[in-house]
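We now fix the convention by which a protein and its fold are recorded. The integers have meaning only within a learned vocabulary of local backbone shapes. A complete example follows; check for yourself that the lines match position by position.
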Amino acid sequence: MSGIGRASVLIGAGTVVSRLTGFLRTIVLVSAVGAFAGAGNAFAVANQLPNNIYAVISTGLLSAVVVPQIVKAAAHDDGGRAFVSKLFTLGTVVLLVTTVLATLAAPWLVALYAPEYPPELQALATAFAYWCLPQILFYGLFALVGESLNARRVYGPYTWAPIVNNLVSIAGFLIFIWLFGSGTADTAWTSEMIAVLAGTATLGIVVQAGILFAFWRRTGLHVRPDFRWRGVGLGQIGRLAGWTFLMVVAGQLAGLVQSQALSNIAEGDPGFFASQNAWLLFMLPYSIIVLSIGTPYFTRLSEHAAAGRDDEVRGDIGRSIRTLGIFVVAATAALAVAAVPASRIFTNSASEAVAAAGVLLCYLISLVPLAVLFVVQRTFYVYDDTRTPFFFTLLQCALVVATAWGAEWALDAGILPPGQLAAAVALGQSFATVVQVIVATWLLRRLRGDIGVGSWMLALGRFAIAGVPAAGAGWLTFLLLGGSEGWTTSGPLLGAVGAAIIGLVALAVYAGFLALLRTPELSVAMQLVRRMLPGGRGA
């Protein structure tokens, strides 16, 4: 197996294990605070704040300046030690200042993201936020050290450290349940309860970053504080990542509007926390399929674009979309019919699972379009065009905002039932993504000529035809197992087992129909599956 193959297997395995332990972490968290309870929504808002703030900081600083320069610095006479010292000092100062300011602003941030929460729930979310916002510093240190390790071809720690974070969180949440029991609507939250729950979440991020420091010696760099930042590349932010930075800011603003809409949801209905968990399920096939399979195609795409072989780039676009499509359509069909038992993993009852499944189904509408967008957007990037993706992403963000406001209006007008607001926001997200990928594809075709849209749309159509009987077989299996009142919704573990059984039936029927249709992409897909299985040969 080649070095690239070994690295891919290591990263892929780490991603799968990280996702699985992340699922277990969320299951325990649901047991601690409830899926639809006010405390669960308050904690979800507070724990999301450091991620939102860090996303902007990381794009503006790490992506624009730090990460690209680490590899270049390795060619310096000192191996990049002096340069990396400057970068680390700059990054740490920016992260530290941002963390302090954000923590001081916790009450205003909570009020901004959850304006419709009642005062007692805002107070609880603020208390959680004081414990969670320090995560910004440790997220940043994790990225700084992790990218340095990757630049020196030390891949394992960066991939596997999040698993330790999940394990720490699981242990802490279990301790919370042991000490205080499971949170309910009537739970009176004390400062000790808040400290254990939110402190655990932050401790996991601290340990995650600390693990990477244990491997720092492998980089061969001796970093010391250096405040002489001249020459670090601050003036290059606009040129290197200006459009990308603005794109992330637009996405964060759209997410803010969605969060504000979800704060209208009363306790007992799927709200912010339930939407987060539905998104987690939705992103599982995307992260495993699109990122693991699509990334090697992106590398090939970049090589052909750099060499000026535009015809081969067009061929790469079609091949990558068809290869991703055959897997993503299967995942969409399987997860759609298993939505209720899959949602039961992150809920406390069968009725909650049915309600949460509606949110998941609305997200799933955009799974195939997102896979296409992955290829189309990166085609712009290989031609050093970040400006065009900004504009079609800005359109998507505008539609997300409009649909979220529309859902709020429909709720206030009595048109939309309160229990359907989260699903309506998710549906708006999917609608915006569908429009985005249509516009992006049109723009790419206009700028780069024929990109074979007809051929890969025809292939996606064949996959969809096979997906219909696959979904039918999966749904019949769900009904035979008792439906929403059967054993697949009696508990989180049985929900996972039931979802797996239903999904496997759907996948088997899907593969069978593709074989009947003599789909040429099936053989390529089977080769990829064999490579990913234990004992398979890496690329």
